[in-house]
Write a structure and sequence with these properties.
This protein has helices spanning about 100-115, 120-125, 130-140, 155-160, 170-185, 210-215, 220-230, 290-319; strands at about 1-10, 20-25, 30-35, 40-45, 50, 55-60, 80-85, 145-150, 150, 195, 230-235, 250-255, 270-275. It is of the alpha/beta class and about 325 residues long. The strands form four sheets. Strands 1, 2, 3, 4 and 5 form a five-stranded mixed β-sheet that branches. It has a three-stranded parallel β-sheet with strand order 6-7-8, with no helix packed on it. Strands 9-10-11 form a three-stranded parallel β-sheet. A hairpin with an 8-residue loop joins β1 (about 1-10) and β2. α4 crosses α5 (about 170-185). The longest helix has 28 residues, at about 290-319. It is elongated. The model is unreliable at about 230-305 and about 310-319 (pLDDT under 50).
Length: about 325
């Protein structure tokens, strides 16, 4: 028996094929059948007149703080987005070093750069974690859609350099400390390293955000050294993250099972964070496979589909 059948919808499966009327059967959180389904199911949804399609992946969001006061991550959830990547542009809110003035700096920086209300950042976010893993633990099991978080350059800089993060070059020892902190953060579940060189990114005092100073160091300097180990995503010209090397992380189920916002996706994914198993690991945590590998495959599939669609468009123009 199937867990659910979505009946009679116009199915667009993401392969580039034309839409077709079909039923979609779901078992154990995965799509088990597409077509005319006669098998019984515990639950049925009538999708007549509706479109049934894979969710969209939004690779550039800033839900890092909003996730604490809006577990649905709206408005993305209203527009077919089922996976979001946050922590972009170097603006993560973890790790923290425990110093109130440094947390306050990140808070005010987000309010300026991303237009987030300062009152919401102060009242809606606990700011009580230290490591990146602690931050992810605070969100564990509470979000309605898939989410992954980058480790931000500005947060790393402020953690290591304090007030010197704005306007000063990092010493060799400080770069090494940032690299180690980045390694720890990615091992705890961060998806990669993000930074920014955008001239519009200024902090609450109107000064360039910390990562912009790091980007100005000579070739082979801070940003390149940090990014070299794990791949980077900059604000402009984003690139896919490089694999984490021999230290393979398993995915961790991350969504609140009570929030049945998502039904299923063809790749069988649920909301995850990449993570190494720790003493706090729950049974079955690693059964979903490697999030980084799956995300890379999904992005490559999207690129192949885009190229195929472009080729079809050119053929139609020349026909």
């Amino acid at each position: 028996m199937l867990d659910m059948i979505i009946r009679g919808g116009s199915v667009i499966d993401g392969s580039g094929a034309p839409a077709r009327l079909a039923d979609v059967g779901i078992r154990d959180g995965r799509i088990a059948a597409i077509g005319t389904i006669t098998e019984a199911a515990r639950e049925e949804i009538d999708a007549t007149g509706l479109t049934v399609a894979p969710g969209f992946v939004d690779v550039h969001t800033h839900y890092d703080a909003q996730a604490f006061w809006d577990r649905t991550l709206s408005p993305s959830c209203y527009h077919g987005v089922t996976t979001v990547i946050a922590g972009n542009c170097g603006f993560s809110i973890a790790p923290l070093n425990g110093k109130p003035e440094d947390s306050e700096y990140l808070m005010r920086m987000l309010a300026r750069v991303e237009g987030m209300p300062l009152e919401s950042l102060r009242e809606g976010v606990p700011w009580n974690w230290r490591s990146f893993g602690d931050y992810l633990d605070a969100l564990d099991g509470k979000l309605a859609i898939n989410a992954g978080f980058m480790v931000g350059h500005s947060a790393l800089r402020r953690h290591v350099m304090g007030a010197r993060a704005v306007g000063s070059h990092a010493t060799g020892a400080e770069i090494a400390a940032m690299q180690e902190l980045l390694r720890e953060s990615i091992a705890a579940g961060g998806l990669g390293f993000s930074s920014t060189v955008s001239p519009t990114h200024n902090d609450a005092d109107g000064k360039p955000v910390p990562s912009r100073r790091g980007a100005l160091q000579p070739v082979g300097g801070e940003m390149i050294q940090c990014a070299a180990h794990h791949g980077s995503r900059q604000h402009a010209g984003e690139t896919a993250d490089s694999p984490a090397g021999p230290q393979r992380r398993r995915a961790r189920q991350y969504a609140d099972p009570r929030l049945k916002v998502l039904l299923a996706r063809r790749d069988g994914s649920s909301t995850h964070r990449g993570a190494q198993e720790t003493g706090k690991a729950r049974a079955g945590r690693d059964e979903h496979g490697d999030l980084r590998q799956r995300s890379g495959s999904l992005l490559r599939l999207r690129e192949e589909q885009a190229r195929a669609a472009s080729g079809r468009a050119r053929s139609a123009c020349t026909a």
